[in-house]
DNA sequence: GCGCATTACTTGGCCGACCAAGGTAAAGTT
DNA sequence: AACTTTACCTTGGTCGGCCAAGTAATGCGC
């Protein structure tokens, strides 16, 4: 009676893929939680990854960003336009290649780094609450396996580094 | 050297939340994979859940759908409008309550049920390839725990059934 | 040097998903 | 019966994300 996993009864058409269903639900909840924590920093869910990369990488070509976050180029373009408008990012033409665009986190945005770091570890703790170290490691391991699986044949992960 | 989990180096700002990062990546890859499998059935990623519920539930109020898939009402409205346009769903005013709308999967869409079922189990297999039964059960268990955690305080799961 | 493929981004369109606000109808209160 | 609250959806706007197609510059082969 009270034994169903979490919140929802599984639709019968999804019986063949309970884990997939769980992944979808967890993904959405996780994204929402991340969004709430990141809202304080003025970031929308998804933008964190881009900024995290830029904070590490410094001034860099947009193509590098695209490779790093592994999103559609058009997605990155639009995200960067918005991040530029909101003052988190500076873009400038690459003098060495007139097609390319150099991207860089603004000094302003760097002030958010620690906020985002805190938010991210807080999210992790919220996500993994009640799991001991062994379980966390196991979950990380299993997710890594799953990620590998999903990369294969989907051909979304660069085979060539 | 070749020991990093999957495809990507973790940004330093995300060091405090490796599992969260993995969840995000897996979520996106999983959604993409689902989308590819479901494209054959004429469904966009996300619509599966709605249709799965309707196939089980028959003619039902829109508010029931909203509760079941646990999405924003406005999201459901728009999805249903599109699903109606594409012929997967029929909507009609509820004679018993003039605010409400009754929703129902069309006969046409029911023909897709088996396709979606197959797609979903195929997705599951693709996702969990190489994991033995114990690992699968463990992953399911851990995901359920995580889901519980994310429901708390986010107050997105109905406390009240 | 010239043409052609490749690379690098942009634009437009579409969908899922959110929030904020609005409008209507039912239910509850007095 | 009139008023207020609550439930049920819709509309409009914004974002992340995808695809398809387009533009512009570079690089490569010849």
Automatic annotation (TrEMBL), chains A, B:
Coiled coil regions in record: none
Domain HTH marR-type: 16-148
UniProt KW keywords: DNA-binding, Transcription, Transcription regulation
Database matches in Pfam families: MarR
Segments traversing the membrane: none
Claim: Transcription regulation is one of the keywords in the record: yes
Cited InterPro entries: HTH_MarR-typ, MarR/SlyA-like, Tscrpt_reg_MarR-type_CS
Protein name: MarR family winged helix-turn-helix transcriptional regulator
Organism from which the protein derives: Streptomyces poriferorum
Upper classification of the organism: Bacteria, Bacillati, Actinomycetota, Actinomycetes, Kitasatosporales
